[in-house]
Design brief:
Blueprint: E1 2-7, E2 22-25, H1 37-48, E3 53-58, H2 68-80, E4 85-88, E5 104-107, E6 116-120, E7 129-132, E8 135-138, H3 157-169, H4 176-186
Parallel strand pairs: 1-3, 1-4, 2-3, 4-5, 5-6, 6-8
Antiparallel strand pairs: 7-8
Helix pairs in contact: 1-3
Length: 191
């Protein structure tokens, strides 16, 4: 499965990432992650779906802020390059629309109408996710760092989205239109 990570780039040599298949720098001159956020997101996805081909779509360079036009360009790149799944742990001020042919996008609620909407649930173990009221709930913690207490590691909605993207990427052989229903059926709170 081709998974695009719209974020701050990815440090491909990081041991939790294990390389990337490619990508594009919408912002900046390279795919190098100078903030660490995109790399942590990639590590969380790779942990859950090691077979995925990860593509860095860099929209942040030296700060976690991007224009709506930049986000549109990133999503258009994902369409043009036939990504299967897009991790977009980005908050926006209004819902994005108007891009046809989008792959399945995993994001926080209120970004895209047809997206897999995810909220952080601190009580959710990292190995499972929950589903209720049209929203998926996942752990807000990325992969653990040896010797670093969980509360000192990066955490938040971005990593709940990344964990959920990893769960979705495990369904690489499922048709796109069935991934959401497959995820709902596999949620920890379902019988």
């Amino acid at each position: 499965m081709k998974v695009a990570i719209i974020d701050s780039g990815v440090h491909a040599g990081h041991p939790h990432v294990g390389g990337i298949a490619g990508g594009v720098a919408i912002v900046g001159d390279d795919l190098i992650d100078r903030l660490g956020h995109g790399t942590a997101v990639a590590g969380a996805i790779r942990e859950k779906a090691p077979q995925s081909r990860i593509y860095a779509v860099k929209v942040f360079d030296r700060r976690l802020s991007a224009s709506l036009e930049t986000i549109f360009r990133a999503l258009e790149w994902c369409v043009e390059n036939e990504m299967d799944l897009v991790n977009m742990s980005i908050g926006v001020r209004r819902e994005i629309g108007g891009i046809s042919g989008l792959p399945l996008v995993v994001t926080v609620p209120g970004v895209l109408a047809d997206a897999i909407a995810v909220r952080a649930d601190e009580d959710c173990p990292r190995e499972v996710y929950r589903y209720r009221g049209g929203i998926f709930y996942a752990s807000p913690y990325p992969r653990p760092i040896p010797g670093v207490p969980p509360e000192r590691n990066l955490n938040g909605a971005s990593f709940a989205v990344a964990n959920m993207t990893g769960f979705a990427a495990r369904l690489a052989r499922a048709p796109r239109e069935t991934i959401r229903s497959e995820l709902i059926a596999r949620a920890a709170n379902n019988p």
